[in-house]
């Protein structure tokens, strides 16, 4: 018997893989005893959660090991998804859904006197991402596994994820996140695959044995990257892929140095410094520049990951010349773009490949996804910082640039302006490395994340690159996983799906189309409404629990949840709420449709205006919620600490989804998709994926307003003066005056001055220009909502036509157009 057969045999003899209820209960009690050291009677909810997680993990490991075995025997191309962020959300519920054992497990723990929902609530969320980009990576690895594509997610195991937000006196307060406090049952440490990463120092030339000039990098320090692996199960398939996150540790050699030099404290200090590398996730503020540790983090995880891929390639007997045949590496934004230079370094310096061969391998390996057009968000690194950390990489980037610019000069004879625009080095002031340029030149494919965004990439940010190599450019509209965002988040609605159209939708979201023929069925509509109302009741409970504010589930739930940012225009919604309030106060008997406005989202700690926007939201809530004249017809709620977990509770309870960014600014948005598939209607600008959602669901079932991206451009060119617009609109003018005169700040006219001044003097995101259109559109929303039958029909059609926005569709497009990978089905051992 081979070792594999032997262990498979032992596995089958044990209880740890069986999905039967009895063996599950036995295993649970076993785990409670052997991993937590507790009996059922004295264990806490945390203990129960841990024991349950280990019990489920055991079942998952069987698929994981089978998958690894299947991949080892295969030479098929593997996707490496490189992302500095994976905003995974809790694993337990999702794993139960994907393994198809949610109901059985609920029963099993129920028979032990426990409530599964209570246990699911115990899991600390790994908040290893800021927002859209990190959550997209999480949806994508779920889809990769579900489509049975061989794939690895590579990232950083931050000890502290995104901060935990509380609201104190109406202000955001950032608290450190400590997600590892009780341990993480889903990860396995793999010290045997640790990688040494060099940092700093200098380069020197030498002559090799064949008398060739070579360059050698003499680093100032090394750190060790230790991988922690978590299984990523696909939905109802045997595939369980791996998420491999790197944690920084000190090298062993420090310990030896202590013996030699006797400098114990010094050595320990060095150790602490090394381990700082993966301590904390950087919040994304307006200026990502200049954070030395951030570049170090990026290089660290990319170097570890490429090294790991080479280990895998070698393990399969592959040669380095075939690297690109084995791996398709996707760069999730520019954060891992240093990988282009690192792979070149490995190929040229370590494997001594000729430059052109190395470059051909490199460009065939990488694909680059851009997530933002905001110029201030494009990563640039000052040259001296770069040289200090990565001296060899800077030399290689210069060389890449020289060769690239030669091609540019040949393509555009005499066009030196074009050369400057395309250069990997920004020479306009202080010199910088432009990471988006490095990523674009080093990749065979570049893609935007929605149609409009990809078009604007080609027109603006990367226009010169597009002129040079148009065939490189793709558009792949984002998507979200229906497993987490429907099956797990909205069980009531999914039960109605099951009864009406079966279960196939979870894997083929287009099947939701079959709901369309029930859109005019009164009994179906009645159930649809009852489910939404139930979800709203649950959300109302959560709101009162988290904020103390009582809201009426019968009122319209009007929701905006996302990072707080000027371009997303939470303050546009605020202006409109104040206008509604003003109307109500002017005529207390006015027919006002009761609405509950729900906001949630984090502001980057260094982004003062965004934090002030939160203060403004809580301030208007403090006035409106307690004004007896309003009699509860308007409520404004700020839910603290938006996260994957809170999102799962908010989307299913929303009636109206606010997607009101200035057109041309939101690359795609993905929350917009989660709302639509949970039956909320959208009020939105023609921005990002809103455009495609509107196209899919039909403009009759979508509330659009505001300027298009082209109109925004035109308006700016024509010379935009916000004061003119505000003066000309009495309603808007009155609203601005109310804030300015201190109604929401107890007479303090300074507090919100930065927001008001911004609006009057610059209005960079053109709130004033879009205000009237937004306000009118909200009246249209009111009319639609009053007609319950019409609204329900629209809601059903939104869900029925949301199939395009499954991340399975996105991933299939990446697989076909960019990665050229095909599924590998996994037999269980
Ligand atoms: C876009 N995050 C959304 C989403 O494609 C889009 C930036 C710097 C440092 C760390 N994180 C970031 C982002 O840029 C980001 O989340 N971008 C978002 O990516 C997925 O749907 O429109 O704003």
From TrEMBL:
Known cofactor(s): pyridoxal 5'-phosphate
A cellular-component GO term for this protein: cytoplasm
GO BP of this protein: glycogen catabolic process
Keyword Transferase: yes
Alphabetical UniProt keywords: Carbohydrate metabolism, Glycogen metabolism, Glycosyltransferase, Pyridoxal phosphate, Transferase
Keyword Transferase assigned: yes
Superkingdom in the source lineage: Bacteria
InterPro entries reported in the protein's UniProt record: Glycg_phsphrylas, Glyco_trans_35, Pyridoxal_P_attach_site
SUPFAM superfamilies associated with the record: UDP-Glycosyltransferase/glycogen phosphorylase
Reaction equations catalysed: [(1->4)-alpha-D-glucosyl](n) + phosphate = [(1->4)-alpha-D-glucosyl](n-1) + alpha-D-glucose 1-phosphate
Entry's Gene Ontology molecular function annotations: glycogen phosphorylase activity; pyridoxal phosphate binding
Stated family: Belongs to the glycogen phosphorylase family.
PANTHER family associated with the record: GLYCOGEN PHOSPHORYLASE (PTHR11468), GLYCOGEN PHOSPHORYLASE, LIVER FORM (PTHR11468:SF3)
Name by which UniProt lists this protein: Alpha-1,4 glucan phosphorylase
Classification of source organism: Bacteria, Pseudomonadati, Pseudomonadota, Betaproteobacteria, Burkholderiales
Gene from which the chain derives: malP
């Amino acid at each position: 018997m081979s070792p594999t057969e032997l262990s498979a045999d032992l596995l089958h003899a044990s209880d740890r893989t069986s999905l039967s209820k009895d063996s599950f209960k036995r295993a649970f009690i076993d785990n409670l005893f052997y991993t937590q050291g507790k009996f059922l009677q004295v264990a806490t909810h945390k203990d129960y959660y841990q024991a349950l997680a280990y019990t489920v993990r055991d079942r998952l490991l069987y698929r994981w090991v089978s998958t690894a075995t299947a991949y080892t025997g295969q030479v098929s191309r593997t996707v490496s998804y490189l992302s500095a962020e994976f905003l995974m959300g809790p694993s337990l519920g999702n794993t139960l859904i994907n393994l198809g054992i949610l109901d059985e497990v609920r029963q099993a723990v129920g028979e032990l006197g426990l409530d599964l929902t209570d246990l699911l609530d115990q899991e600390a969320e790994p908040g290893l991402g800021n927002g859209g980009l990190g959550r997209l990576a999480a949806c994508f690895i779920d889809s990769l596994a579900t489509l049975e594509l061989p794939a690895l997610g590579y990232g950083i195991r931050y000890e502290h994820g995104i901060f935990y937000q509380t609201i104190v006196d109406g202000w955001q307060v950032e608290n450190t996140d400590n997600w590892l406090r009780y341990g993480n049952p889903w990860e396995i440490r793999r010290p045997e695959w640790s990688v040494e990463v060099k940092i700093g120092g200098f380069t020197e030339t030498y002559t090799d044995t064949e008398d060739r000039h070579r360059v050698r990098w003499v680093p100032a320090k090394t750190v060790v990257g230790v991988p922690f692996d978590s299984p990523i199960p696909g939905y109802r398939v045997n595939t369980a892929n791996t998420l491999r996150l790197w944690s920084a540790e000190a090298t062993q050699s420090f310990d030896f140095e202590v013996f030699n030099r006797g400098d114990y404290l010094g050595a320990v200090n060095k150790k602490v410094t090394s381990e700082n590398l993966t301590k904390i996730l950087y919040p994304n503020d307006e200026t990502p520049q200049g954070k030395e540790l951030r570049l170090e983090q990026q290089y660290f995880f990319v170097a570890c990951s490429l090294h790991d891929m080479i280990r895998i390639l070698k393990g399969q007997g592959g040669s380095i010349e075939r690297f690109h045949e084995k791996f398709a590496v996707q760069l999730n934004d520019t954060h891992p773009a240093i990988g282009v230079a690192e792979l070149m370094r490995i190929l040229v310096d370590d494997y001594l490949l000729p430059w052109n061969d190395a470059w051909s391998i490199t460009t065939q390996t990488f694909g680059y996804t851009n997530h933002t057009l905001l110029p201030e968000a494009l990563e640039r690194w000052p040259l001296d910082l770069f040289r200090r950390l990565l001296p060899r990489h800077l030399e290689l980037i210069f060389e890449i640039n020289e060769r690239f610019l030669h091609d540019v000069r040949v393509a555009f004879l005499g066009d030196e302006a074009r050369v400057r625009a395309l250069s990997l080095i920004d020479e306009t002031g202080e010199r910088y490395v432009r990471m988006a340029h490095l990523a674009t030149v080093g990749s065979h494919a570049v893609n935007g994340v929605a149609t409009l965004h990809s078009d604007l990439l080609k027109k603006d940010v990367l226009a010169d690159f597009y002129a040079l190599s148009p065939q490189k450019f793709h558009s792949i509209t984002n998507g979200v996983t229906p497993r987490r965002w429907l099956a797990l988040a909205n069980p009531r609605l999914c039960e109605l799906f099951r009864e009406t159209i079966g279960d196939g939708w979870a894997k083929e979201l287009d099947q939701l189309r079959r709901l369309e023929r029930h859109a005019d069925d009164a009994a179906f509509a009645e159930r649809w409404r009852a489910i939404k109302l139930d979800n709203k009741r649950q959300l109302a409970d959560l709101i009162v629990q988290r904020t103390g504010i009582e809201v009426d589930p019968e009122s319209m739930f009007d929701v905006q949840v996302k990072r707080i940012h000027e371009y997303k225009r939470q303050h546009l919604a605020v202006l409109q709420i104040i206008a509604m309030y003003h109307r109500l106060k002017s005529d207390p008997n006015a027919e006002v449709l009761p609405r509950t406005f729900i906001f949630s989202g984090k502001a980057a700690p260094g982004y003062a205006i965004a934090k002030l926007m939160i203060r403004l939201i809580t301030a208007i809530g403090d006035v409106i919620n307690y004004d007896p004249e309003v009699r509860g017809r308007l409520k404004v709620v700020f839910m603290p600490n938006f996260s994957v977990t809170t999102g799962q509770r908010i989307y299913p309870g929303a009636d109206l989804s606010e997607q009101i960014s200035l057109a041309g600014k939101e690359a795609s948005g993905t929350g917009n998709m989660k709302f639509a598939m949970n039956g909320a209607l959208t009020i939105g600008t023609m921005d990002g994926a809103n455009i495609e959602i509107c196209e899919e669901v039909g403009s009759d079932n979508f509330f659009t307003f505001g300027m298009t991206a082209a109109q925004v451009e035109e308006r700016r060119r024509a010379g935009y003066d916000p004061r003119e617009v505000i003066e000309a609109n009495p309603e808007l003018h009155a609203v601005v005056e109310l804030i300015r005169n201190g109604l929401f700040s107890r007479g303090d006219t300074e507090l919100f001055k930065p927001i008001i001044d911004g609006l009057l003097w610059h209005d960079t995101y053109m709130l004033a220009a879009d205000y009237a259109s937004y306000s009118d559109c909200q009246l249209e929303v009111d009319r639609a909502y009053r007609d319950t039958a019409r609204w329900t029909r629209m809601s059903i059609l939104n869900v029925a036509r949301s199939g395009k926005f499954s991340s399975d569709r996105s991933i299939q497009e990446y697989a076909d157009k960019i990665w050229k990978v095909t599924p590998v089905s996994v037999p269980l051992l």
